[in-house]
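Here is one chain, start to finish.
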Amino acid sequence: MAGIDDTYIVHCAQTTCDFGMRPSMLVLTMSHGVFLKGMAQVAIQDCKAENIICFGGCMSPENPSTVEAAKEIAREVAEETQVDFEEQVADIFTQESEDGKKTMACFGVCTPEIVSTEWDKEKEDVYVEPGKKALLGAATLTCKYGGIIRIVTTGQPEE
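Its structure:
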């Protein structure tokens, strides 16, 4: 059986984001007319906001919503303790992972803003519509806030 990297992706494939709170799904609002095991096949151009469901929350220090959530926590703590540390909020709530990627220790609103114009891995000779190549599992997208969106499952029903 082929690994996910070289497998076609269909409607309802599971996705993750580096800064997301939970896994999500890749969805098609309209089929291209090509089905695999009864599920609509995804093209590399299916990377718009309507195709990427929110990841529940965002930990990116580049997301203004996440920074505002950290500031709100700081304000609440300041009210309770009478100590104001709102100016240091980014330092207090920012964590660095082993790979050097910074995340916030709180969540803001996840509104995926995709900067990629298409998924970056396709099947060169397979089209789901004229000019629209089939998406493969190794593909990724980049969010405006620095998150890398990856495909975790193909969405294909189990046999």
